[in-house]
Design goal:
With 89 residues, the protein is α+β, with helices and mostly antiparallel strands. It has helices spanning 33-47, 62-70, and strands spanning 7-12, 18-23. 27% of the residues lie in helices and 13% in strands.
Length: 89
Amino acid sequence: MEAGSWAPSSGRTTHGRAGSTVSRSIRYRRRAIAARLVLRCELVLRKKGLEMFAALIEPENQASEAFFESQGYDILPIIYARKKRRESV
């Protein structure tokens, strides 16, 4: 990925629901881009009937935890389990 570029990756999550991942460069931090993106996604998905939104945050990623908490998300202590058919998935 080029520095400063967005890299969306959409697909099906391990539990069969649509999922998306977005990575971003350090130089774009603190510009409210992520907040606007999350809000827009929520608005679009609400129109499609979704009433709950979730984010998978790695335990060591305190910045993401703080970000989602600032967006009104409840931070829950959960355990995430997965099983891959192959390593490249």
